[in-house]
Amino acid sequence: SHNRLNGLHASISNCRLLSRLNLASNLFSSIPPVVCTLTAMTDLRFERNELTVLTPLIGNLVELRMFDISENKLETLPRTIGNLSALVELNCNDNNISSLPPSLKDLFSIQRINISSNKLKLLPTDVTGLTSLKRLAISGNELQSLPPEVGVMSSLTELLLDGNQLNTLPLSIGRLTELQVLNLDGNRLSLLPPEVAGMTALRELWVHDNKLSVVPEGIADLTNLNVLTLSNNELTVLPANMTRLVSLNELWIKDNNLKSHPFRQGLLPNLRLLLVDMGVKV
Fold first, then answer.
1. Which of 12, 27, 115, 218 is the most buried (most CB within 10 A)?
2. CA angle 274, 225, 110 (to 5 degrees)
3. Cα(47)–Cα(246) distance, integer angstroms
4. Residue 51 CB coordination number (10 Å)
5. Percent helix, strand, coil in the chain (nearest 5)?
6. Positive or negative, the Cα torsion across 23, 26, 31, 35?
7. Do residues 253 and 276 lie in contact, with contact meaning Cβ atoms separated by under 8 Å?
8. How many CB atoms lie within 10 A of CB 282?
9. Contact 184, 228 (CB under 8 A)
10. CA 263, CA 266: separation in Å to the nearest integer?
11. In this predicted model, what pLDDT tens digit does every residue of 32-83 receive, in sequence order?
């Protein structure tokens, strides 16, 4: 990595047992076809290159577990990426990808996908079939909605959706009972569905910089919450039962239209940070 390579000698095809190849921070405009003959490969890194297209031959690397093509200039992923059934982690953040192939649903082993900072307007329903997925990062795209079936992604522990254009959340989101981190900062949400109360494993809920006018009372059931950000919304009142959130370490409620809040000193014994506007009464 960190050279000025833009090609590879054909003799690398003799390295039949090569399992890891790091060509990050070079000048490749495409992945050389010879790389796709190295079928023992488990870890392939091409981040920070000049990739504009991904060869369909990538589907030959059926042992691949880690594939990093982040920070390139890709606009699409080939259908053959679905052949990578051993893949555990896929990083394709910071590209120009505007759609995902349906074959993504065939990544049966996938646990982590980062497709942040692209141009996705739609998250295809096929993605919700990835029941092994633990971390899904789609920050900084152009999503306006999520598939109604998102709740079937029962293994998810981290879902990053900040910096999109979401107006609503599907009711099924409450079925993500393993979810620990949900980041919705910087969207256009005017409400959280009452079903969020079902995400009882949640430790961090980020909803800063939205259009929330109300917080559902069910949020008080999220008693494992350590971090809750509700700042820069349109809230005028907070549910009194939020004092049940006794695990909170951080609570952000500034830049709203609040006149008061229910968090008298001592009610939240683990609270280390409370961000609230001057003059808001207890």
1. 115
2. 130
3. 42
4. 20
5. 20, 15, 65
6. negative
7. yes
8. 10
9. no
10. 8
11. 999 999 999 999 999 999 999 999 999 999 999 999 999 999 999 999 999 9
* Cα 7 to Cα 141: distance, rounded to the nearest angstrom: 31
Say what the pTM is.
Answer: 0.94
What tokens appear for 38 in the block? 């190295």
β-strands 112-114, 135-137 pairing: parallel
Rounded CA gap, 29 and 239, in Å?
54
**Nearest-10 Cα torsion for 18, 83, 81, 169:** -130
d(CA 214, CA 198): 18
- 182 forms beta bridges with 159, 205
- Per-residue pLDDT, 3: 63
* Structure tokens, 12: 């690398």
- Which residue type is seen at 199? M
Query: Hey, what are 70's tokens?
Result: 């982040």
Structure-token match 């297209």, residue found: 53
Rg (CA), the chain: 22
Give pLDDT < 70 ranges for the chain. 1-3, 6-9, 14, 279, 281-282
- Cα–Cα distance measured from residue 210 to residue 29, given in angstroms and rounded to the nearest whole number: 39
Q: How far is Cα 156 from Cα 145, in angstroms, rounded to an integer?
A: 18
Write a three-state SS string for 43-59: EEECCCCCCCCCCHHHH
The answer to whether 124 and 141 have CB atoms below 8 angstroms apart is no
